[in-house]
Every structure is written in C-alpha cells, then in structure tokens.
Write a structure and sequence with these properties.
Blueprint: H1 2-9, E1 17-21, H2 31-38, E2 43-49, H3 60-79, E3 84-88, H4 91-102, E4 106-110, H5 115-130, E5 134-138, H6 160-169, H7 211-214, H8 219-233, H9 237-240, H10 253-257, H11 263-269, H12 279-301, H13 323-331, H14 337-349, H15 354-367, H16 372-382, H17 388-399, H18 414-421, H19 426-431, H20 451-456, H21 472-488
Parallel strand pairs: 1-2, 1-4, 2-3, 4-5
The protein binds a DNA duplex through helix 6 and helix 15.
Length: about 500
DNA sequence: GCAAACTTGAA
DNA sequence: TCAAGTTTG
C-alpha cells in the first residue's frame, strides 16, 4: 500500500486520485475503487451527468432510480470517510477542471461497454495521458470482457448456445474483491452540485409512488435482494420465472443496470449451494446472467444494434400501426388482458415480468405491426432496468431481425400465452381490476364471454374495458405475409 | 462441406 | 405436425 506513495513522493507528493464513477455505484467488487483505495492517497469520487448518451438521456424511470442510487452511494462513501462529488458537463472537460482544482495526477474508472461510452472513454484517456495524467481502466461490469470470446473460426458469436458453451469453457469467473474499509478524502473537498437540482425525480410525483414500495435502489438493497433470492426463490427458479403471478425472477436487473452489484458477486452467491438447491436451477439462473454477457457481446460487435436491424433484410419491412394503436399499447388498453396487465405493471412498477415482456412485445411487433424501435424506446422510458444491450437485443429477438435465426412465423398468441402462464388470472386481476370479476374461463378472453357473464362481472366492453384492438388470427396472418415478403424480397 | 443444433410457439 | 434458414464445430 505504501509502495506507490513512496514511488510518487518525489514528484507529486500525495496528489489525489480521481475515481470516476458511472453505472457502477457500489463499494463491493469495484476494481477501480479498490485500486484507488490501495494507492494510499486521497480519493476524489466523481459522478458526471453527461449531456448525451448514445440513446439520449436516461429514461425517467431509470432517472428516478439513479437519484436514489446516487444518494445511497454518497451515504456509503461517508461511512468510508468520503463524499460523492456531482458535476455536469462533457466528461473530459469536467475531469480537466477537477484536476486543476485538486491537483490530481491519476484517474481511475471501470470500463463501460456501450459504444458511445467506450468511444468517449478512449478519447478522454488519450487526452488525459497527453496532458501527463495517469489513467487506468478496470474490468468489472461483466463476467468476461465481451470482445474476448470468439468462435472457432474467429468470428463473434451470433447464437446463444455456442456462446454459453464457450463461456463455460473459460472456467469460473474471478472472485469478487472486497470493499475497502476506508477511502480517504482530500483535506478540501471539491464543490459538488446538488442532487436535488439535477431534478432526476419525475415531475408527476405520483407516477413513481409505487416504485419505492417495490425497489430499494443502492448497494445494500441489491445485496438484500440477492440474498433473499438465493434463500427463497432460486430453488424453484425455472418454474417461478415463468409464472407472472409468482414472479420467481431475481429482481436484480435494475441493480445490475446501475452497477450497484457486480455480476461476479451474483454469480458466486450461487456457489456452494448444491446440497440445498438442484444444480439445474442454478444453471438456469446463471444462463440468464450470461444472457446479459451475450447481449453486450452483440452490442460490442454491432454498435448500432439499439437502432438498426442486425439482419438488414428487415429494413424493408412495411411497418404499420398509427399513433392511436401505439398509445393504446403503451397505456395497456389493447383489450387483451395479459398484454394490458403487463403494460400497466410496467408503468406502475418500472418493470414487467419476463414472460409478459415477450407477450407484450410480440403483440406490438406482430399483432400491431409497429416498428420494434418504438417499443424499445417506450421500454427505455419506463423500465428501471433499461439496459442498452439487453433492451435492443431482446426487442430484435422478438421482432425476428436479431442475430438468431428464429422462425419468422413464431407469433405469440396473447390468449393462449395468458391461459398457459397465468391460468387462474391472478396476475391479470392484480393489474387489470376492471376484468377481475370474470371467471377464470374468460379472464384472458373477455370478448368471447356471453353477455350474461359480462353483465355479472360488471363489464361493458368498449366502456369499462376496451374491445380487442385486433382480431389475433387476422393480425397473425397480416404479420406473416409482411414477414414473408421481406424474406421473398431477399 | 456436411450434419446438428437452434430460449421462450401454434394449431 | 408444421415449417426456416443460418450458425457452428
């Protein structure tokens, strides 16, 4: 710990390290933070509100999350004897300014992998090094570096299964590193902007009112969520994650998206449990963690994937659907209860059950024939777990224009999917109370219920609950012919 | 160059 | 049963 200090003492004394934090607001398993602590000089912990990311600013749901995450992280830093410094502006300029203010001679950060972010980092690193500042970047947002994995022929993977096998062949991911016990601050802390002035919380305060009942942003909340998941839900993961009413998923995605917990921490929390929990369940969960790795692998090799069809043949697809169609989907007024339940859960909770995401997304793309990019944008706006890689990759998967060669005729039937995965309508009734009194038999198809049943359930279709936006069978045929024409044109 | 394989389906 | 077409080893 003292070695570095002695090395530097002749030139720069105890010039501080700037620790630039991004979507890695945690103390545990944070390689840049650990390395900064180990230097034994004061650390300036910096978070920059940058003007534009690739896809524009964070959506309002994730901005709500960021507000609380920054506040928690500042509290955590205070326990280590430090504070979080907030600044706005173009990152390179902000760091230069802060170097001038503090006399820092070193900048550390954890790498990011979104195309705009990593390109910016490369530029900033070059500029700082030219100015004589030492810059070091660290891994930690992913289990393995996404550019490292290659097929036997040296190309990037396009298909998940072989990617998974190659991932497994790399052996266990590195163990997480511990949080440091102190992180000394400089004698004079640089000025910080005020978090409240950043106005990250929604302007309609009632919008996010339910978020805080469900989510606890911050590292402690993430670790608590992980612990409870491993204790309670992992043993029945495969069935639980397919059952919207039970929601057996881990709920870790927003924490991972903000870097409040590292994937290595999550991975290794599922080690050493084999006596209590079947290995099939653990593998199933790990495969989901590795899907995130795979999404970043694709994003690195297809930097425009959030906007551009990976399979360019789909550029010619003749999308339909008007503003009103789109608005009804956003609001959960499609007339298909499972879709509406999902879209309303999204609005109320900032998240939607995985199975229902597929159903709702398929409905937008196939039944309404609306461009997947509009759905992607809405999800980015409303999801607390919006992730530049996952969101684009999964929308492209649903739309059929992604890296995999899924059959184009796979169209989810919202009625059958509802009956299969929410047979008792528990999930639907929770989010679509106006159909709650329907018997199970009609809960996913109110438009087929006899008049007497509707009357009994106090439903007037078109008034108390919407008529179905499309006839699914016809919509399916329309989608198939649109997709077929793209195929034939090739 | 060939065979096997491919997250999540519908009728 | 149907019905694609590419990726990977």
């Amino acid at each position: 710990m003292n070695k570095n200090r002695n090395d530097r003492s002749t030139s720069s004394g105890s010039a501080p390290t700037i620790l630039w934090l991004r979507k890695d607001l945690r103390l545990g398993d944070h390689h840049a933070l650990k390395a900064a602590a180990d230097r034994g000089v004061p650390v300036v912990a910096l978070y920059i509100r940058e003007p534009g990311e690739d896809l524009g600013p964070l959506g309002p749901a994730q901005s709500w999350w960021l507000h609380h995450s920054l506040a928690r992280f500042d509290e955590d830093l205070q326990r280590l004897g430090n504070r979080l410094i907030l600044r706005s502006g173009e990152a390179g300029k902000v760091i230069e300014t802060l170097i001038a203010e503090t006399g820092a001679d070193t900048v550390y950060w954890n790498r990011r992998y979104d195309p705009a972010g990593s390109a910016a980092d490369t530029r900033i690193k070059a500029a700082l090094e030219k100015a004589g500042v030492a810059v070091q970047s660290f891994a930690g947002q992913l289990l393995h570096e996404p550019m490292r994995m290659k097929t036997k022929s040296g190309t990037p993977f396009r298909v998940y299964a072989p990617f998974w096998r190659a991932f497994e062949a790399q052996g266990e991911p590195d163990l997480p590193v511990d949080a440091p016990s102190t992180l000394p601050a400089p004698a004079h802390l640089p000025k910080s902007e005020s978090l409240d002035n950043w106005a990250l919380l929604p302007t309609q305060p009632d919008w996010a009112s339910e978020f805080s009942a469900i989510w606890t942003p911050g590292e402690a909340g993430a670790r608590d969520r992980l612990e409870r998941f491993v204790e309670e839900r992992l043993k029945d993961y495969r069935a639980g994650r397919e059952t919207p009413a039970r929601d057996g998923s881990s709920g870790l995605s927003p924490h991972l998206a903000m870097g409040e917990i590292s994937p290595a921490t999550v991975w290794h929390a599922t080690n050493g449990l084999s006596s209590r929990i079947k290995s099939d369940e653990i593998v199933a969960f790990r495969r989901e963690i590795v899907w995130r790795e795979y999404a970043y692998h694709l994003l690195v090799h297809h930097p425009d994937l959030p906007r551009v069809n990976i399979n360019r043949r789909f550029d010619r697809l003749d999308w339909q659907g008007d503003e009103d169609d789109f608005r009804r989907w956003c609001r959960g007024e499609t007339g298909f209860p499972i879709v509406d339940a999902g879209m309303r859960q999204l609005w109320r909770h900032g998240a939607m059950h995985n199975r229902v995401r597929m159903i709702a997304a398929s409905f937008l793309v196939k039944d309404l024939l609306i461009d997947w990019r509009r759905g992607e944008a809405w999800f980015r706006h409303t999801l607390v777990d919006a992730d530049p890689a996952n969101n684009g990759v999964n929308w492209q998967w649903v739309a059929g224009c992604g890296a995999d060669a899924a059959p184009f005729f796979r169209v989810f039937n919202p009625i059958l999917q509802g009956e299969k995965f929410d047979p008792k309508g528990i999930y639907v009734r929770r989010f679509v109370p106006e159909v709650a009194k329907l018997p199970d038999r009609y809960i996913h198809r109110p438009f087929e219920a006899p008049a007497s049943v509707l009357a009994e359930a106090c439903i007037t279709l078109g008034k108390t609950y919407p008529k179905p936006q499309v006839d699914h069978a016809k919509a399916r045929d329309r989608a198939l012919s649109a997709y077929r024409s793209v195929k034939d044109a090739a």
